[in-house]
Amino acid sequence: MDVIRNNAAALSGIDQLRALMDAGTPPPIGVTLGFTLIEIEDGRAVFQGDPDRSVYNPIGSVHGGYAATLLDSACGCAVHSRLTAQQGYTTLELKVAYHRPLNDASGPVRAEGRILSIGRRAAFAEATLTDAAGRLCASATSTLLVFDLPVPPAG
């Protein structure tokens, strides 16, 4: 995580994400939920995770928030890959559809995000989450706010 923080002013979004992958240190949410960024290219990001019983809900399947988090990460990083070093983003809206339940036998799962369009202030992305057999488990669309990062004070 410090890789991005320490080099953010010098690296484009895609270079920040590549540096994060090269460092092999996922963000804390990836450690907590057991997923990692495995592919990044211009306008596309892929995360992989292995859902286990630690992410189960009371009804005995993987909590929907696990899938939503992977889908949100895939959409967000797809947008991040197109940003300059002076830009940031945040999710404004995430709509998730659950097609098939996940359980500890589903993995590894892949969340693949793609940009649909990106402008000066807004980006639109979509993502799919598939299980180890390639079956669609969840999908999402996302609206993201793109903004200029504050300029750090000199000195």
Description:
The chain is α+β, with helices and mostly antiparallel strands. It has one domain: Hotdog Thioesterase (Thiol Ester Dehydrase, Chain A, Roll). The chain contains 4 helices and 6 strands. Strands 1-2-4-5-6-3 form a 6-stranded antiparallel beta sheet. The radius of gyration is 16 Å and the shape is globular. The chain starts with a helix and ends in a 7-residue tail after the last strand.
Domain module tally:
1
Roughly what fraction of the amino acids lie in strands?
35-45%
Q: What is the general shape?
A: globular
The total of helices stands at 4
SSE diagram, text form:
Layout lengths: L1 H6 L5 H11 L4 H6 L1 E7 L2 E6 L14 H17 L6 E12 L10 E10 L3 E9 L5 E13 L7
Antiparallel strand pairs: 1-2, 2-4, 3-6, 4-5, 5-6
